Amino acid sequence: MARKLFELTGKNPEWRFSPFVWRSRLALYHKGLDFEGIAWNFTDKAAIEQSGQGKVPVLVDGDQWISDSWNIACHLDQTYPDQPRLIPQGSIALMHAFNQMVDAHIHALFRPLVVMEIYDALDAQDQAYFRQTREPMLGKTLEAYAGDKDQNRELLWKGLSPFEPTLKNNSFFGGDHPNYADHIMMGAFMWAKCTSDYALLPSDHPFFSWRERMLDQYGAKARTAAGFVIKPL
Amino acid sequence: MARKLFELTGKNPEWRFSPFVWRSRLALYHKGLDFEGIAWNFTDKAAIEQSGQGKVPVLVDGDQWISDSWNIACHLDQTYPDQPRLIPQGSIALMHAFNQMVDAHIHALFRPLVVMEIYDALDAQDQAYFRQTREPMLGKTLEAYAGDKDQNRELLWKGLSPFEPTLKNNSFFGGDHPNYADHIMMGAFMWAKCTSDYALLPSDHPFFSWRERMLDQYGAKARTAAGFVIKPL
C-alpha cells in the first residue's frame, strides 16, 4: 500500500504551507521514504476521519493512520530503525521539549507574518472556517493580529537570537547533519517561504545560512516546493 | 590539585543560590566528581581573575580554569568520558539550544520571583553592585520588577505549560534518567528554593513531581543545600 501524507492546501492544490506538515515531509525525506502528498482542506474532515481526529499532518503508512507531527516522527524512527534516525537515541524527551518550545515561542512569532497570506490563499469554504476558528483563539481579527510586518520581523529576530550562538557553532541543530530538531525549526521557515516573499533575514544572519543549508538538503525539495524565492534583506 | 567551583553567596557563606552555579553543581554530582565549593561574592572579581572574566560558575580543574556553565558541562564530558555523560552523543547542538531557551524564556519567569530575596540576602557591598548592575538591565527598580508574586507565579505556570506533556511522558528531560537538560531546568528551581519558601506549584503539577525526583538525585544534596523547604501550593 502506498504511503500517503495528508497536507494542508489552498486554492492551488500544489501549495503545501503547514509548518507541522513540513516537519513530517522533511522527516520522510530524511528517512528516505517515498510518499504521496495528498492535498487536504481544513474543512475536509471526512477524508482523515480514520485518524480519529481532524488535523493534519496525517500519515497513512500501510494500514496505520498516524496523526500529529510528533507521533509521526516517533513512528518513523520506530518503524524504520535502519534508515537515518530523526531523534538521537537517549534524546527523545529533550527533542520533545524542543518541539514544544518551538510551538510555543517560535510559531507565535511567525504566525502574524503569515496569517493574512494564508487566509488569502485558501478556498472560500476554508477562508470562512479559518476566520471562525482563528479569531477566537487570537482574540482579535486576522487583520489586527497581522499588524505591522516590519515590527513583527524585529520581534522574530529577538526570538531567534538565543539560538544564534547554537547555529554559529554548529551547522545544524542536529550538529554536523540535520535531524528532527532542524525539521521542527525549518517547518516555521517553510510556513513563511510558502506564503510570501517578504524577506525575513539579512544574509549574514546565522539563521539565513542555516536555512540555505536546509533548503539544499534532500535533493532541494523544500527549495523547489510551491512558494516563494528566498531573498536576503 | 583539588577541584574547586566558585559559587555565588551572600551574608551566609553556606548559601549558594545561582541557577548557573547549580547547573555546574548538578553536573559535577552527575559525573561523580568531588569538588570544593568556594563562596564567592559578586564584587570579588580578583578571586576569579585567572578565568579571564568576572562571573561564576568558574571551575578550577587541575590547572584549567573554565568559566560559563555550558563550557563547564562540555569540559566535564570531554575530560571524564568514562563517567556518566551529561550531554548525549549527537545531541550537543540540541542541548545547547535547550540551554539557550531556558535562559531566555524560563529564567525570565523565575527572576521576578527571586530578585528581592536575593537582594536582601547579599552583603552590603554586593547589594550596591546588584542594584547598580541589574536595574539598568531590567529598566526599572528591583522592587518594581519584583511586582506581584501571585501574578508572577501564574506567568511561570503558563511558561512551563509547553513542557508539561514532556514530563508527563518522561521521568526526566533526559528520559528515564536525568542528564544535563534536567540540570539546566533544575538550576532555575534551585534559584527559587534557595531564596524563599513561596510555594510555586501544586503537588499534582508535572513539574512538582519532576522536581521531587531531581531533589532525590545524587544523594539528595540539592534537597539539603542551604535554602528553604519545598511546600506544595
Question: How would you describe the overall organization of this protein?
Answer:
Two copies of one chain form a homodimer. The first copy, chain A, is of the alpha+beta class and 233 residues long. Chain A is 53% helix and 8% strand. Chain A contains ten helices and four strands; from the N terminus they run βαβββααααααααα. Chain A has helices at 19-31, 69-79, 92-121, 124-138, 142-146, 149-160, 164-169, 180-195, 206-216, 221-224, and strands at residues 4-8, 36-40, 58-61, 64-67. In chain A, strands 2-1-3-4 form a four-stranded mixed β-sheet, with helices on one face. In chain A, helix 1 packs across helix 8 (180-195) and helix 3 packs parallel to helix 8 (180-195). The first copy, chain A, is globular and about 45 Å long. Chain A starts with a strand and ends in a 9-residue tail after the last helix. The mean pLDDT of chain A is 97. Chains A and B meet through helix 3 and helix 7 of A and helix 3 and helix 7 of B.
